[in-house]
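Q&A log
Question type: sequence-to-structure
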Amino acid sequence: MKTGCRAALLILGLVLLVPLSAQEPQTEQADIRLVVDISGSMKRTDPDNLRRPALSLLVRLLPPGARAGVWTFGQEVNALIPHREVDDRWKTGALERVGEINSVALYTHIGAALEGAAYDRAERSEGAAPRTDIILLTDGVVDVSPDPRISAREQQRVVNELVPQLHALGYRIHTIGLSDETDEALLRDMARGSDGLFSKARNAEQLMDSLLQIFQQTVPAERLPITGGLFLIDDSIQEFTALVRKAPDQDATELTSPDGLRYHAASERPDLHWYGTPDYDLITVTDPSPGRWEINAQLQPHSRLTIISNLQLVVEPLVNNINVGEPIPVNFYLKDQRGIVSNPALLDLLTLTLELSGTAESELALKTWQGPPPEDGRYELVLPAPRRPGDYELRLTLDGKSFERLFTHRMTVASQFDVSLTKRLDGDNVHWDLMVDGKETINPGQTDVVVYIRHSGGHSEVLTLKAESPGIWRHTLSPEERANYRISLQASGRTVDGRAFEEHLPTQYFTYPEEGDPQPDPLGDAIGSLREELDDSVAAAERARQGQDSEPPPSTLTLGQPSVVDTEPAGPETATAEPREPAHPLLLAGSLVLANGLLLVLAYFGYRAIMGGRKTQVLDDTDDEPAPSDTGAPPPMQQLESELESPSDSPDTPAPTQPPPPKPASADEEESLFPLGDDQLFDDNSDDPNGR
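Response status: OK
Response body:
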């Protein structure tokens, strides 16, 4: 080992020998209040009562010293488990009472349930109250009366009055929807309005995952990274707890210490506490041996390893909700019993990595610390702004060669715009009305919205929308060609506080014609246009025959007559032309009949050429796509099916083989319209390698 590493480890060892009496005051303990829906509809949406095992796990994970309580509700609210400080006695009583959760109540009085959990709100003052987390599990909507108007008024009260009031008093409301019948918009609004998190759970595994995600936000704990089942225990760690989420029917979990000692669920050791269920193992080891430990199991998502240690990674509080385009600063430091660690001999050994990942693997931003450590030991890394809405996980990993630490944080990134596309029928015409509605966070006068319209017939265009009113942009599309249409949107500008942003808005799709739409008739349109032109020519010829015009106007119809060229040189004087004798009526009529017949023949063969070509027409970017079997159907658009299968809150990523939009007047203008591809999610133009 190098001399510098030895010195740093010696310093670390001396740091850890400082007595606990020198430790800084402990941070405020967590306050968790669970509110559980027991309305009759839960018999259908949660027939196996999966709420019980999920809550039991949460009770077991609560650390001593935290405060917690559980309320159940339907029409009435009941304090099932008293809100008190968590200790062994509280946990024993709570685990017994969890078994009483059922599905027998009438109605779903969410407002009363929140007020019951926030029973001490009258004792709090705005801006100075301690943070309290309320976790709401429900499968329905606000339902307080057989009269839907009364329930609607109560819902407005909850969203517009109660939630803002509770948030001002220090309450955060996290919501979990337990079925597809849940009013998802309501639960999202409640969570975002109080800087809480929203999750949706359709089965036992998802419910447990949702609770664990929220638990990690509400009860932060020191964590270690697990890589391939391996994790590193250092001398500062007094205890670790492993939550091992298991796959169905997998082999029994086994834990191996650095000296080869094997731990099992049946092991009887004073330093081991092992609680196992078919879904998970919860393993606690006190005074563990330093070195590499191994978990032998098929670790499922949300497995984790927490520790009690004298060396802590402290991350300053982060919000749970941001808008697209907002950069994410992360401030953190190491702390021992004497305070913030600032010794450069130790900090020089650290490798710091900060990453933000979204719902797709491509949605990734990464930062590492570059250069010497900060003199005061306080680090700041800034992640570039996400360009798309969705749920993201922030992950901070610290590798100190002889020790490791991990911090994770989930956040929701919301759009600053609402986008809608609605169809409107006007007689024989079909219109699609696009509306982009900016939220109050943007500066409308400094915001541009650009749309890229493309259809599977091959046509595309780029437009910069004009604001109809401050913050409102509209555009109407009137399709005429059978095709699948795609509308990609990008907004850029400044927020009300002057911060620049760019956002890819949700892509819109439609097909023309749909069932019930007026059908396009290219042959009828072509024949109608030719008939109008023929009628104009007949009228002009008739006026000429009657002497109303000196000569018929030149016709755009060509019947094949040779043109006559006068080769005689012009004389000094111009001879007076004798008046022409009008064409014989029979000759004129015959010519018109011949012209009409030729026009119909030309229109027929033109239509066959158009529609026959359409049958085999293949777009430049759909070389491998089969031709449609129905000649009247719109031609296909490459990857349209896969794009439509993407989640609604997920971003649209056009195929990389598609040609770019047509260039505007200049390259600079094109860059200003679409400076990045749809798959590029983050903007990082900072000159500071640490993103500050």
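Response note: The CA atoms of residues 52 and 208 lie 10 Å apart.
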